[in-house]
Design a protein that fits this description.
This protein has a domain of about 200 residues: Rossmann fold (3-Layer(aba) Sandwich), CATH 3.40.50. It has a 6-stranded parallel beta sheet, sandwiched between helices. It has a two-stranded parallel sheet with strand order 6-7. Helix 1 crosses helix 6, helix 3 runs parallel beside helix 4 and helix 7 crosses helix 11. It is α/β, with parallel strands linked by helices. The relative contact order is 0.15. The chain has 11 helices and 8 strands.
Amino acid sequence: MNTPPFPVPRPVVTGATGFVGARVATLLGAPGTARLGSPGWREAVAALDLSGATVIHLAARVHAPGATEAEFDADNVAKTSVLAEAAADAGAARFVFASTVKVFGEESGARPLSGSDRADPRDAYARSKWRAEQALAGISRARGLPVVVLRIPFTYGPGAGGNFRALARLADTGWWLPLGGIANRRSVLQVDDLARAIVTAAGAPGIDGRTYAIAHGEPLSTTRLVEAMRRALGRPRRLVAVPPALLEAAGALAGQGERVRRLTRSLEVDPAAFSRDTGWVARVDLEDGVAGALRGAAA
């Protein structure tokens, strides 16, 4: 997609140089941008011309080992609130907020989760995103600011860091790995599909006030993801089917229980509502997307 599927009035993007934001900015052409990482971020927000603008707020504290709850709130709640207040004051056309599926919690259980399911955030990052969603809902009610919230899953692609990079490093070895018997269901999204979803949400009519879960329509198991990585890297499969319960017990003994559960448990969301309301669907084949991400990492 070279042009947005709907007109996006006066786009202003935060986090426009990041992993996702750079792709969103490319799709939008030459959007206005706002940098919220400096000590003078409040002054930067006050200087923005947001009259009739579509604000796409992607900047956030995400992977921050050791960060406190207060630090997450300062970056993810306070900055969101100040930016939204400024947008409301200026009469912005829409405020699109990038949240996370972790607001639902760490597991989905027997069925995929949707935007109407209750929140159950379990870590400081997810709790800060949930509090930001609540702040936006209050500003929207009080000030009439049109808000759309996107809860985003595990995102991968060329340049991806965090858990994707760590798992790719593990896959790029000749070691036998105990990950061959994990039949979980984890929602994922390739970064270019995510960028299209965000731009779609910025312009689609009739969706103000909605909270959407977005993802590829087909979830991935950890086993399938590692298999795809090893194929793309030219490595032998070398996966042993160890029962997930045994992996979790070993992880707990090693003080890595939470990390192991992210490999063994399901966190699946249903993107049907967003697709129905906007026409967006993920286009990047999962296997092709994984291979492309790893080629990009090696470039």
